[in-house]
Amino acid sequence: MNILKCVRCGEEIHDLKPVVSCPKCGGFLIPHTTEKPRKKPGMGVWIWKEALFSGLSRNTVSLGEGSTPLLKAKKIGRKFKVNNLMLKVESRNPTGTFIDRGSATLVSIAKYFGIGSLAVAAVDDLGISLALYARRADLRTKVYMPLSTLASKVAKALLIADNVVLTKDFRESVTKAEKFSEQTGSYIVMPSNPYLLDGYRTIAYEIVTALPKEKLVNSTVLVPVGNGGLLTALWSAFSDLGIRVRYVGITGCEETPLIKDIYVSSPIFKDLIIKIITESGGEIIPVCEDESISSMHELLTREGLFVGAVGASSLAALGKLSKNSDTVIAILSGDGQPDSVVISKLLELRKTKALGLTSLKETKSRILEVIALKGPIHPYAIWKTLKQEYSQNITLRGIYQHVKDLQEAGYIYVSGKALIGGKERKLYSITPKAIDILRL
Predict the structure, then answer these.
(1) Cα separations (Å) of 161 from 100, 133, 334?
(2) Cβ neighbours for 66, distance < 8 A, ≥ 6 positions apart
(3) Are strands 2-6 and 29-33 parallel, antiparallel or unpaired?
(4) What pLDDT digit, counting tens, does each position of 259-298 carry?
(5) Rounded Cα distance, 99 and 419, in Å
(6) Pairing label, strands 246-252, 283-287
(7) Which backbone phi and psi does 279 adopt, to 5 degrees?
(8) pTM
(9) Going from the N-terminus, what domains does the chain have, and what CATH number goes with each?
(10) Which of 21, 78, 181, 392 is least surrounded by Cβ atoms within 10 Å, i.e. has the fewest?
């Protein structure tokens, strides 16, 4: 039996309805099944139709999403001392993202109910993916995207969607999409839509089919976390199958265009994210843009995989795990190839590696500049300086992570301590090694 169940009040929906949240209390609706997933011959998410709530629909829209490879990364696994490091390569989907799985199930439901248009509150790839699948199904789309979205992704949305509106931030995208939906009757789509989550669950079905159960039990799953939709869907599917895994959520330590999808100050599924991570004995690991770029380079040179910065963040988190498992499954999503910004950053990284230098770009180089100009200085003062003088949007937690990285790399050191605001704070200064870097 396939159902939608409210995480707040427990309300269950057994019949297909064009819902976006619980009709009883407004809580999130999560797909569940008692069916053992058995794949049918073929490709795509619909080979799992019997274990999908969306499978009750007679309409199925597909662009060949799903059936992505699960590859063993022997070289990187040896580096991090993981016996079975498995990479679920979601960049092989039509638009290069796992979201395509959810777009297939959601657009199919919209088609089934005769819905003619979608109002999409998007963070980058969601709007692009839904617009493409809507084209396939002859549905119209109006996509609301934050101004901070990478220019190449805005261009893709403009090419595919019927209308694109740039907004101040994601919150404004939601507000405008809701208003447009009320005025026109368009079906509103946000990252929490249950029919999106339904498609994401097929990732778990494919993993379970590919790996023996003994390797899965107590394994660690690395999941990029933005609003938490993918994490929620995987948790739902593995739980239904009675498989306990440890979830590690990867978030962005700063807001930059390349990792904006995983830098969300107030995730839609925030409470559920905390519950899933805590109950599984997992953790949340922040990753910065330069770390993701470095991991992209490592995946390319060691394993021959070209994935986006958000997807590569899973690998960047691998070296920060508080404890390891015999089997680690990293979800890699996002296609890095078409983006000129990513290409230039990778070429720059390769150049610095060839020169025997450590790449200190973007935020880390700015932090070094601040310490050089104003040091000795404590992390909180660095954070205030970046916000006020550089207009850099970064969390204080992100600053501490950068400072830790710079200290471990030998670019800064604790030069003293001071009592500030009633607390003893470490003061940092730069080393001669950093002076050489800043001269470049």
Answers:
(1) 15, 10, 19
(2) 43, 44, 45, 47, 93, 100, 101, 104, 202, 206
(3) antiparallel
(4) 888 988 889 999 999 999 999 999 999 999 889 989 999 9
(5) 49
(6) parallel
(7) -65, -25
(8) 0.81
(9) 100-190 (3.40.50.1100), 360-438 (1.10.10.10)
(10) 78
